[in-house]
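Record format v2
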Amino acid sequence: MQKIKRCLIIDDDHDDQEIFLMCLNRVDSDVNCLTADDGVEAVAMLKSDSNYTPDFIFIDVNMPKMNGIECLKILKNIERLKYTKIFMYSTTSEASFVKESRNLGADDFIIKPSRTAELKDKLARIFGIVSVVSK
Amino acid sequence: MEKMGTGIVDGETGLYRKMIEEIQDYAIILLDKDGFIRNWNKGAQKIKLYTEKDILGKHFSIFYLPEDIQSNLPQKLLNEATESGRAAHEGWRKRKDDSKFWGSVTITALHDDENNVIGFCKVTRDLTDKKISDDRLRMSEERYHQMISEVQDYAIILLSPEGVIENWNAGAEAIKGYKSSEVIGKKFELFYTKEDRENGLPGRLLNEAKDNGKATQEGWRVRKDGSRFWGTIVITALHGKDGKIIGFSKVTRDLTHQKAAEQKLAAYTEELEIQNSELQQFAYVASHDLQEPLRKIQTFAELIQEHYDDKEFVKRYFQKLDSSARRMAELVKSLLNYSRLSRDKEEKDSSITEVNLGDVLNEVKQDFELLIEDKKAVINCGPLPVVTGNQMQLGQLFSNLISNSLKFSNVAPVINIDSRIVKKEQIENAPKTLSAHRYHLITFEDNGIGFEEQYSKIIFSLFQRLQRKQDYAGTGIGLALCKKIAENHDGLIFATSGLDKGATFHVYLPVMEGAG
């Protein structure tokens, strides 16, 4: 039996959350996806519930209070997330951010596309590859 | 006369007489006791051009210039020779053709057995060539000394091996302000700052010149009136023939103006660097913050197309599309405002006036009239000062701060504005760039949502937001703008707050001195 995949999207922009969920739902309706409005909320969520271990985390870079890079640093230090795939998810790919997030252990840096088809394609590949591995 | 003639001539051998006659390099003339010429040799003829026939029996003053005759020089020389046995003199003499020659003359008195003067032997040598070359050398030395003493742009000083000033030129006086009589004999440490003297710099420079032949240095030096100048100095060791150091030459140039120009250039470069980094920030913003609403507009348009039949969906996404477009317009407007501040800075002088901050506040209150009414906000304010500055910018500063207080609030906003004067020393962590002595401290205190202390700095950076876009609208430019305006006015802005404790913005603007 295939295990239900768990996903967390951290983004302060509700529109972007909505677009992400819409695309993810088209790609794989078996994914259970939660949202957090910023890094502070996400960290609190993951630290307060030790049973919650998402398979995938998507982090927006430009967020108030705690930016995506700071958030990534903290998540990478949570032991039970060591098998979680973490992706940065941003409007622009500022070279220094891309480099820093790679160094900090992010699996990839995804640019928020203007075409939903592009995002769906990206998500399909991410979820497809991992489902093969987890089998 | 006769006695003399027989005494000498008749008593000598022909050979001896011949010897005198034939000498060519010296004019050897026999004078009687009154100075009349009695004998004449070849040398005399060669130097003075008279033949023996022309000259015998003439008075020897015939060789002297009119001015020497007037001052009775020939007779004086005879008198001297009579008294002391001998007289020596150098001077211009006249030849038969009136041309001049420089003669070195020795007149020796001749005596009879009773020691009476019976005549004189006058030996003259033509030293014209030597005189000319000596004169040239002397003139060249004089010119050289004159050149050094009159050079204005360089202080050229001669120092003894111990560093005592021995010579002083016009340039030294112009640059350092001392007259030569005030410094000759003093040690050259006089021109160094107290710190340099205490650190032993003057002695170190002399030692360096001793060891390496010369020492160069640039630094602040002190004039007589205590003012400082930026000097570039070369000290060169002077050596005697035996190789020992006989002193130092010290050449100083006043480069204060060049130094000032250099500093100005450095300040300009620094400003350029700041502008450059602002430009980079700008470019980042253009690529991110403007791209974000643009991307969303494209996505929403695509989704609307896909769900064309779903009326509810289309309506909702048109609204989203509209709000993204509006946000983009707002960003463009704020960016223009922000960029205009840099331009205004360049046009500073023309736009600076006296600005009554009380009037500024009233205008801002009028602009927000509807919002104030809507939010049931209260704005309390004591008397506000008049400052010098840019009316438009100060209006923007007040407008942004009040708009923030009205916006970031969950209850009816209460804004208290107050003003007092503080001394620069009283400002905590004041940046070095503040140049006024006293500042108006204007505080804007509100009862809004505030922010955690840790964010008190980053809220003034361009495009830093603490709040989620859906909770509180804004572009993330407002406070960056306020910071820039305060800095444009030689002022400062910072904020203090605690979460849910309201925020207080502290704005410092220079007091117009003289106007209180």
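The two ends of chain B are 108 Å apart (CA to CA).
Residues 1-9 of chain B have pLDDT under 50 and may be disordered.
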